[in-house]
Specification:
Mean pLDDT: 76
Radius of gyration: 47 Å
Largest sheet: 2 strands, antiparallel
Number of helices: 102
Strand order of the largest sheet: 1-2
Number of strands: 2
Structural class: mainly alpha
Distance between the termini: 129 Å
Length: 2044
């Protein structure tokens, strides 16, 4: 019992696993009860038992197992997760339950299997049961068969897949176990119930006794088909219906039964047989033998093989060719019929796979019908019928039409009979008008044939067509037949019996019934009344899909032609007598009498009466022909009086408009109208008449007649006006049905005319045609002269991007036609879509089959590659010469196919280029070669060479462009290709499918055959294949649906399956939406105009614009198709926006309201649903991945002059994963309106999807760059509007563009700055200004510099202006790479030819002058005299202006502050001030239209608009009083969230909801413009910082706080210090607070280390600038502040992150040298650096050396050694060397391992320098402790030979003597003397003048004093700053007073100075030395004119003198560094004056 009690306490799931069976039994019982109790199928409780289910059913104890099976059954029935256990549980049932002796166990096992089937796992269960049949235990086999039988009986053949079961039947019938044989017999009977006779062929090979027994059983079965009695969970609707029927005892319709019978195709149950290898080896020799007996043997051998009902797929090309040759060429009729039988058998056995050979065989068979022998004819008929079933009528129509005109009546007869038989297999869907029309036209000719058998066959074919598609559809093509023949066709239609005994669409009164009502075709009979509707719509959609692809030309014109039903339209010519008689009936007698009067006034009166009479006549009464013939009577069109003529022409127009005007009537008047069209006075009336006739008789017909008449005469005026009329008419009527061929030759004639007006008119007409036809129109004119082609191209260029206008005139309809019109909407839709192809059909095509000779083919197949190449060259020449060819190219496909697998890759590429040629030349006819030749191109994609694969892909794309995707996806060819385990082929094909499938509206069902291959690719060992497969997965799912894909995954192995199912789930999330079926009139440029715009109205307005309301009336758009109507916009939202599209004048059609009715409305709602999801999909790290791929050159770098197709395709591919499918379709639509709409939607979602927008930002910007290359201004304006809002959003999100994004966008944006339209330029400038907020100005600068090199003068000017703005706004540091280089390039433009460029360049240089003064002349280099004078003039003018502007000081503050604060070089924090500050993005969006120049910005919750604070002093008073926060709440233990920035500022009361937001708010107040607010905020922060336990809450806010602080420092510096109204004591107080806070902050190392590089750099910049502010001296306590700053700097240097600190100082030094900052600034930065260098031995372990070296590398790159030496001071160079030397000393050779972050080490001398240092480190005798000692330590090794010395000194003295290099020479001489102190200069000086000698001496002294001063500064650590000590030195042990004392003594003696200073401290600068007030923040150095140079030199001398005085005092008297003034300014000034006088006298 102890054991029992032990397990009884366990939870249920543990009991179920217990080793004691009783415990398990108890567990199973409790689990069963638990499972019955749980109500929720998704309860987490179920999950506990998932892993135990197999144990439940396979328990080793029989008793426990029974209970386990019961529990498992309940679990499977109720648990949502049960499906996951299917495989393991069913396999457990099969192996451990079906072998149990207990019947109950087996029963439960079967129930479990069936329950799994019910929960949608039928495939897995079936698979496991079929595996069970291979078990050796017969009990298990019997149970599995029984379970399969039960499953089939209950679920039916739709759920249980019969094919695999039928396969195993034969094997089981042979079992030795009687029980198995009996059970399988029952199963066979059950299967027979479901599929009837389809089961017979597979069972033909079983034992005859068993077969007989089966036959007996089958006979007993009831004839009614079985029904499904158990339903899947997803079939609950069927279940309910079934139960309802059971309850009512109803029987379902007979149709239901029939449907079940045909559900299984016997062919599907057969095993395919491979016969190619079994063909006799000598077959191909024998078939060519001369003896017919040998040939017969060969054919019979093949015939025996082809009798297999199902054949394995393979390459049957050679066999088919051989048999075709026998059929076509063999004289022996027996062999012909035998070969035909073989072909028929092949077609039946291969089915669709034979389709690729159909095109080769059918023409031969049709030709062979000339044979009279019935047995041959019958065999040929069987063959062609079997072949027809493998392909489509559309593919064969060309071949059939080709023999319809054959002279042999037998061929015509058999072709018609073949058509009749083929039509029977067609449906309305597969027999569209496009295919039917040309066939009917050919059959109508045969109806009139002389041979009766031909006529009968034609009647039969037409009758069958009428039966299939309905009388109404065929009647328009039979307009020319008389009633007798029509009756005969109807009679034939009534006799036709369609397969399955169904009635066709024709029916008796078919004409009246709309086609849609007809029952669906025999192939898919309806199940019952409800499902039949589904099948109808299915058929309809299928029909439209098919017909859209295959509409040939003439269909469109057929629409516009008159209906045949009214006799008036085909009226014969009337005699003049009859006409007079009829006219007399309607016209007054006087009118007729005066018609030919000699008096023109009488003729005029007669005409007026005539006109009145016509105006009163009714349409039916008007005898049109009679009236026009009367008008044409003498004088007719020779009328001399223009007034009479005008009325006459007007009457013609009236008659055409008001009467039933036939083509016969038109023929009477056209000649006269054309004759007068060029007349100045009558031309207008003539054109009016022609237009009216166009409306009456269709424009296509009228145009053809008018053109031929005009060009038959010689009058150029008439010809020109005719062309003008036609161009206008095309715009008014649209392009539908226009037969280009009809008048293209006349247009060519016109182009060659001598009269320029005719040529101009012809080119204008071509421009209009281009709108409709697109680029293919040019093909007609390839042969024209180049000059003419240039004009044509220019005209086409003008039309590029325009949409054809909506038609405003239409051909009038007869009553009968109007009735039909309603049903023709769909067909018109088809017309439009097919027109691109129609135009291709218009091109005159050459048949080149006769040129494809046997010789050529044998050359192409020759063994010698050179001869093969010759053959290919000849082929290419034939194709290029023919230009456009027919689809008939003989045996060329097979020859080329062989070359695609050629071992010579050059020939493979040549073949591919020929195939590309063929695609262009053949056009849509290429479809029939897809199977025979197209798939061989796919095979080449597996080639190992990338260039061959690329060529193959290009070829494939070219083919698909012509053929569409349908042909490629039909059949199993594609899956066969993917089955090849070639990684290249797989990745190329999958990539191609992933690109193409999303664009397909429908795909053939055969796509499912590729899914297993797709799944195997998902697990391919090649990573690229796996990636491509994952990309393709969503596109497959888009068409096949998740369920089908999931079902297919069920067949995989468990391990694979789990992986694939996971991927399917992911793919489901990103599955693109299916593209809506195009309801537009036509796609793309080439779309034609349907005869009504109705089709366009089907595109609902709401699809155009997501926001539009359902009530908005649908806009009836122009069906020229390309351009949908402009989107309706809610007027309340944005009135401007709604006006914009309409103003373009392109929506003429919007006035016509569409009668689209309810259908579009419903559709629009659907579309809205589709578009409600997110437009961007946020994929983590996707952008990083793209950047990585571009770096690795896996994808094209976004860099081009004009975007090529591959860039667009690449962008599409990248977008497909992260853009909503429908949005991507809009973005890449050919119609610009779609682009506008898409951008509109993006604008709307900008706020709500900001995060996703940022993740796709690079792709969005790339797409915009493509739009910059479009010519459409509407799109461009919309793009710019979006960009402005986008940049505002990015700024508000604090996002900064990456290099990758900027490089692929900014250069293209800059292209648009040169746009001719002002409004565009203005917007681009605004965007560039905003750009600097999200991308550093210094990085924008180089892009603008590149823009100045453009050929476009506007662009150059605008770029220069923009550069000026950048320099003005951000200071000189933006000039990259250096100021000098940039300015030299800018200055070049001062001499530009264009005035605006010159002005812009001058303005930019003036902006530089304003920033850095006279130094500008040095920076710009040498200018020509003229340019320099212009510049000086401009600078003078600007100086006057600034002087004037400076008067109202307040007004200038904003501009000045904007210019004076370059802030940090990266431009990270400085923003240009925005003119407005809207609260929300919407507001910004609305304002964007009114104030284009504004840069909307969105303030974040605590973001500081620093520029506004600085510049707008009025804001100060608006700030609220600071809230005194309770600091105790900071101590509450709460998590500090990351500060989330919201785009809309909340109310003030909501700000204080967390500690983080409190801190944020307080910090934001630090930069307040109100001094008191700022002080309060600083006080609160100080309180926090002073308490260590509270200080931690500042963590994470350090950068934010420091930014606010130095912004406040800037504000004080620029605003408060300059404002006399501000109390200076307040400023001191504010400074004290700031410095106090900073000292507190930097005393805590943990917080101090959080300061980032950029912030530290700006902080140091601000603090040092403050120390140099001369105004501080005038303030009380100013000295104390500077002292505190000294202390602060020391602390910042010590406590900050050392890496960041050194980097910051290096960058700061680099910037200060670049922007020519004051020398003192650079000095202080250098001192800080020296201080950091001194710390290095202690800190080096914590320093990131890689980053430091990267910064040094950058520094050395910008300032190479030569450049550093050119600087006035050599200290920066020495500092850098010392830094590197110290690093080398501390790290040794290891330092070279730290160059990892440097991409290109050759860009600087860093690596070389380090190597030298490392190398010489060991040889050096030790570092000198003091830089001063280096002078004295001279090495004897450095001595040189006298000769060398002489050379060097000669060179140096030359330099001193030259004007330019004098300073450089003196420096070199000084350094030389230092190095070689014993050098003798005497020989070089003795020959010179006294003046020169004293000049040299003076120069050397000056240099020495400079150097000495600096050396002292370096080591002392004292920063001389207005008497303040920058005390950097923590200990003075390194200072050796004796050394300095000695040196100082020497200096003082040399200068004759007295020690007059008592105080110690830094040196004092004279007023002249002090930087001006604008100081360093503006980067303005002191302006030094040439006259001031002397003063400058003098002050330098004085400075060095004082330094040494102080140095001496410091060490001799006061080591405590007391801070006192050394002398009064007045004394200094006197001293200076005295010295100046002394120097002047020396000079003289």
């Amino acid at each position: 019992m102890g054991d029992d009690s032990e397990w009884m306490k366990l939870p249920i799931d543990q009991k179920c696993e217990h080793k004691v069976w009783k415990a398990r039994l108890s567990g199973y019982e409790e689990a069963l009860k638990l499972f019955q109790r749980i109500q929720d199928e998704k309860s987490p409780e179920w999950g506990k038992y998932l892993g135990l289910m197999k144990k439940f059913v396979t328990d080793s104890n029989a008793v426990a197992q029974l209970k386990g099976l019961e529990a498992a059954l309940v679990f499977i029935e109720n648990a949502h997760v049960a499906a996951k256990t299917t495989g393991e549980v069913v396999s457990g049932v099969v192996s451990k339950v079906f072998n149990q002796p207990k019947a109950r166990a087996k029963e439960l096992g079967t129930d479990i299997c069936l329950m799994y089937m019910e929960i949608e796992k039928a495939e897995v269960v079936q698979e496991e049961l079929l595996k069970g049949l291979e078990n050796k235990n017969p009990k298990i086999v019997v149970a599995c068969i029984e379970t399969l039988r039960k499953a089939l009986s209950e679920f039916g053949s739709k759920i249980v897949t019969l094919k695999p079961i039928v396969k195993i039947l034969c094997k089981q019938f042979e079992s030795r176990e009687k029980a198995v044989r009996d059970e399988v017999k029952l199963l066979a009977v059950e299967i027979y119930k479901w599929i009837r006779d389809a089961l017979r062929p597979p069972l033909q090979n079983i034992n005859s006794v068993q077969l007989k027994e089966l036959e007996e059983e089958w006979v007993k079965l009831p004839s009614s088909p079985p029904k499904q009695t158990r339903f899947l969970r997803s079939q609950q609707d069927l279940k309910a219906k079934f139960e309802q029927q059971q309850a009512h005892g109803e029987q379902s319709d007979g149709e239901d039964e029939e449907e079940t019978v045909v559900a299984v195709d016997p062919y599907e149950l057969l095993e395919a047989v491979e016969i190619l290898s079994k063909i006799p080896k000598d077959f191909y020799d024998k078939i060519e033998a001369k003896k017919w007996q040998e040939r017969r043997e060969a054919v019979e051998a093949v015939e025996a093989l082809t009798k297999n009902p199902k054949l394995e797929n393979g390459d049957y090309g050679d066999l088919v060719r051989a048999l075709k040759k026998v059929v076509g060429k063999d004289a022996n009729v027996m062999l012909v019929s035998a070969a035909a039988k073989c072909l028929a058998a092949l077609a039946s056995g291969l089915r669709k796979k034979f389709g690729m050979y159909a095109g080769q065989v059918v023409p031969t068979i049709l030709e062979k019908f000339k044979e009279k022998k019935p047995q041959v004819v019958q065999a040929l008929q069987e063959a062609i019928d079997a072949i027809f079933l493998t392909t489509t009528l559309q593919n064969l129509s060309e071949d059939i039409l080709g023999v319809m005109d054959n002279k042999n009546p037998s061929i015509k007869q058999q072709a018609s009979l073949f058509l009749a038989r083929s039509f029977r297999h067609c449906t309305q869907g597969t027999l569209p008008k496009g295919v039917l029309k040309p066939l009917c036209a050919a059959l109508i000719k045969q109806v009139n044939d002389s041979a009766p058998e031909v006529r009968d066959a034609a009647f039969e074919a037409l009758g069958t067509a009428m039966k299939v598609v309905g009388e109404k559809a065929v009647n328009p093509f039979l307009s020319d037949l008389d009633k007798l023949k029509l009756d005969k066709i109807k009679e034939s239609a009534d006799k036709v019996e369609l397969p399955g005994g169904k009635k066709g669409a024709g029916g008796g009164g078919g004409a009246k019934k709309p086609a849609a009502k007809t029952p669906p075709p025999a192939e898919a009979p309806p199940k019952s009344s409800v499902p039949s509707k589904k099948s109808q719509t299915g058929a309809a959609s299928k029909s439209s899909a098919v017909s859209k692809k295959c509409k040939p030309t003439a269909v469109a014109s057929g629409k516009t032609k008159k209906s045949p039903d009214s006799k008036d339209f085909t009226e014969g010519e009337l005699s003049i007598e009859v006409c007079e008689e009829r006219a007399a009936g309607v016209l007054p007698a006087s009118c007729l009498q005066q018609l030919d009067s000699a008096n023109w006034k009488e003729r005029l009166a007669s005409m007026e009466e005539f006109q009145k009479a016509v105006e009163t006549l009714n349409r039916t009464e008007m005898p049109c022909q009679a009236l026009v013939r009367i008008l044409a009577k003498k004088p007719g069109w020779k009328e001399t009086n223009f007034q009479v003529m005008q009325i006459k022409l007007h009457i013609v127009a009236l008659i055409a408009q008001r009467g039933q005007f036939s083509k016969t009537s038109a023929s009477v008047v056209l000649d006269g109208l054309v004759d007068k069209i060029g007349d100045v006075k009558c031309g207008g009336n003539s054109k009016e008449g022609l237009t009216a006739i166009g409306e009456a008789c269709s424009l296509p017909w009228t145009a053809e007649q008018v053109m031929s008449l005009a060009f038959a005469q010689k009058n150029p005026k008439n010809q020109a006006e005719t062309l003008n009329w036609l161009a206008n008419a095309m715009k008014e009527f649209g392009f539908t049905g226009i037969n280009v061929k009809g008048f293209i030759n006349n247009v060519k004639t016109a182009l060659g005319a001598t009269n320029p007006a005719v040529r101009t008119a012809a080119i204008a007409l071509l421009g209009v045609m281009f709108l409709y036809m697109g680029a293919c129109l040019r093909m007609f004119f390839e042969d024209e002269k180049p000059a003419l082609l240039v004009q044509i191209d220019a005209e086409f260029e003008k039309m590029q991007g325009q949409s054809p206008p909506a038609p405003i005139r239409f051909t009038k309809k007869s009553a009968a036609e109007e009735e039909e019109e309603g049903d023709e909407g769909e067909e018109q839709e088809e017309d439009g879509a097919a027109t691109a192809q129609d135009i291709m059909d218009l091109l005159p095509r050459t048949d080149i089959s006769d040129k494809i000779t046997c010789d050529l083919l044998s050359k192409i197949g020759d063994k010698n590659w050179k001869i093969r190449k010759e053959g290919l060259d000849e082929t290419a020449a034939i194709v290029s010469e023919a230009k456009f060819i027919t689809a008939n190219i003989g045996d060329l496909p097979l020859a080329l196919k062989a070359r695609l697998s050629d071992s010579n890759k050059i020939l493979v590429q040549q073949t591919l280029s020929i195939l590309q040629q063929l695609s262009t030349a053949m056009g849509p006819g290429l479809k029939q070669h897809v199977k025979s030749l197209g798939f061989s191109i796919i095979t080449v994609l597996g080639d190992s060479k990338a260039n061959v694969r690329a060529a193959a892909m290009t070829t494939l794309q070219a083919w698909v462009e012509q053929t569409g995707m349908k042909e490629w996806l039909e059949g199993e060819d594609l899956s066969e290709e993917l089955r090849k385990e070639n990684p290249f082929l797989r990745q190329e094909v999958l990539g191609w499918l992933a690109e193409k499938l999303p664009a397909q509206i429908t795909v053939p069902g055969d796509l499912i055959t590729c899914v297993p291959q797709l799944y195997s690719c998902l697990e391919d060992r090649n990573g690229d294949v796996r990636k491509k497969a994952q990309d393709a997965l969503p596109t497959f799912m888009m068409h096949l649906g998740y369920d089908k894909m999931d079902k297919a995954a069920g067949k995989l192995k468990t391990a694979s399956k789990d992986q694939v199912v996971g991927m399917l789930e992911k793919a489901r999330a990103v599955m693109p939406a299916k593209p809506a079926a195009p309801a537009k009139a036509g796609g793309g440029r080439g779309s034609a105009e349907p005869s009504r715009a109705a089709s366009a109205s089907k595109e609902p307005a709401s699809e155009d614009f997501v926001d539009s309301k359902p009530e908005v009336k649908k806009v009836r758009g122009g069906a020229a198709g390309k351009k949908p109507p402009s989107p309706p916009v809610e007027p309340s939202k944005d009135s401007n926006a709604s006006k914009k599209p309409l103003s373009k004048g392109k929506t003429a059609a919007s006035s016509q309201q569409g009668a689209a009715g309810k259908k579009p409305a419903a559709k629009s709602q659907k579309d809205d649903e589709d578009k409600s999801g997110p437009i961007f999909i946020l994929i983590p790290n996707s952008k990083e991945q793209r950047i990585k791929e571009e770096k690795q050159l896996k994808i094209l770098k976004w860099n081009f002059t004009t975007p090529r197709e591959e860039y667009v395709e690449q962008l599409k591919a990248q977008m497909s994963t992260c853009f909503a499918k429908w949005l991507q379709d809009e973005l890449f639509h050919l119609d610009f309106q779609r682009h506008v709409r898409a951008i509109g939607i993006m604008i709307e979602r900008l706020e709500s999807e900001s995060e996703a927008t940022i993740s796709c930002l690079d792709l969005i910007l790339k797409w915009f760059t493509l739009r910059f290359f479009d010519t459409n201004t509407t799109v461009l304006m919309k793009v710019l509007e979006y960009l402005k809002l986008l940049l505002a959003m990015l700024d508000s999100e604090n996002y900064h563009l990456t290099e990758y994004e900027a490089n692929s966008f900014i250069p293209y944006l800059i292209l648009k700055v040169g746009e001719s339209k002002d409004v565009v330029r203005k917007d681009v400038r605004a965007i560039l200004a905003s750009m600097c907020k999200v991308y550093p100005a210094s990085k924008v600068f180089p892009f603008l510099m590149d823009g100045t090199k453009s050929k476009n003068s506007k662009q150059r000017a605008e770029c220069l202006e923009e550069l000026g703005c950048l320099i003005e706004g951000y200071g000189m540091h933006v000039c990259q790479p250096t100021a000098a280089k940039s300015l030299k390039e800018i200055a070049v433009h001062i001499g530009d030819r264009d005035t605006s460029v010159r002005n812009a360049a001058l303005n930019t240089v003036v902006a530089v002058y304003n920033v850095c003064g006279e130094q500008v002349y040095k920076l710009i280099g040498n200018l020509s005299e003229k340019d320099m004078s212009m510049l000086e003039e401009r600078i003078k003018r600007s100086a006057k202006k600034t002087a004037l502007a400076a008067a109202p000081a307040k007004a200038s503050v904003p501009e000045r502050s904007q210019r004076e604060h370059p802030a940090n070089p990266n431009g990270t924090f400085l923003r240009k001030p925005a003119q407005e500050d809207p609260n929300k993005l919407n507001q910004a969006r609305q304002n964007a239209q009114h104030s284009e120049s504004s840069h909307p910005s969105i303030p974040k919750e605590f973001q500081l608009d620093l520029d506004m604070i600085e510049m707008d002093q009025s804001r100060v008073c608006e700030l609220p009083d600071l809230v005194q926060h309770k600091l105790e709440e900071l101590l509450e233990p709460i998590m500090i969230p990351e500060p989330r920035m919201r785009s809309v500022s909340p109310h003030f009361d909501d700000l204080h909801n967390s500690t983080a937001s409190t801190i944020n708010f307080v910090i934001s107040q630090v930069a307040s413009g109100d001094i008191n607010n700022s002080i309060q905020a600083l006080a609160q922060i100080d309180e926090v910082l002073r308490q260590e336990d509270k200080a931690e809450v500042m963590s994470g806010h350090i950068d934010q706080f420091l930014i606010a602080t130095f912004m406040q420092l800037r504000l004080i510096y620029s605003t408060h210090m300059a404002d006399d109204r501000v109390d200076k004591r307040d400023i001191v107080k504010l400074y004290s607070c700031i410095i106090g806070n900073m000292l507190s902050l930097f005393s805590m190392e943990s917080l101090a280390r959080e300061a980032s590089l950029g912030v530290l750099k700006d902080l140091m910049h601000g603090v040092i600038t403050l120390m140099l502010d001369g105004r501080m001296e005038d303030i009380e306590d100013g000295q104390q502040i500077i002292r505190s700053l000294n202390l602060l700097v020391t602390r910042v240097l010590v406590k900050s992150d050392q890496t960041n600190m050194i980097s910051a100082l290096l960058v700061l030094l680099q910037d200060s040298l670049s922007t020519a900052a004051p020398p003192l600034f650079c000095e202080l930065v250098i001192k800080c650096l020296w201080r950091m260098i001194r710390f290095l031995p202690e800190t080096i372990d914590n320093i990131n050396l890689d980053r430091i070296l990267l910064d040094v590398h950058t520094f050395m790159k910008i300032f190479p050694k030569e450049k550093l030496k050119q600087l006035k001071s050599d200290v920066p160079h020495r500092t850098l060397k010392t830094l590197l030397h110290t690093l080398c000393k501390l790290r040794g050779a290891e330092i070279l391992d730290h160059l990892s972050m440097i991409e290109n080490r050759n860009e600087s001398e860093l690596e070389a320098h380090l190597r030298r240092s490392v190398k010489h480190n060991g040889n050096l005798c030790g570092l000198k402790s003091d830089r001063g000692n280096e002078k004295t330590g001279l090495c004897t090794e450095d001595r040189m030979s006298k000769a060398k010395v002489s050379d060097i000194l000669t060179e140096i003295f030359k330099k001193i003597g030259s004007k330019e290099n004098t300073k450089e020479g003196l420096t070199e001489l000084y350094e030389y003397k230092q190095k070689y102190s014993d050098a003798d200069l005497e020989p070089f000086l003795k020959n010179t003048s006294q003046f020169f000698q004293s000049y040299v001496e003076r120069g050397l002294r000056l240099i020495e004093s400079e150097r000495e001063g600096k050396a002292r500064i370096q080591t002392s650590g004292v920063i001389p700053q207005h008497g303040m000590d920058f005390s950097l030195s923590s200990s003075n042990e390194e200072l050796k007073p004796a050394v300095y004392y000695e040196r100082l003594k020497i200096l003082r003696q040399r200068h004759g100075l007295e020690n007059n200073s008592k105080g110690i401290g830094g040196s004092e600068d004279e007023p002249q030395q002090r930087p001006p007030t604008s100081s360093l923040l503006s980067s303005k150095p002191p302006v030094a004119s040439s006259t001031d140079m002397l003063h400058s030199k003098l002050s330098q001398l004085k400075e060095s003198r004082e330094l040494y005085q102080q140095e001496h005092n410091a060490h001799s008297h006061s080591p405590t560094h007391a801070h006192t003034r050394s002398a009064s300014p007045a004394a200094n000034l006197d001293d200076l004056k005295k010295r100046l006088e002394r120097i002047k006298s020396n000079r003289q």
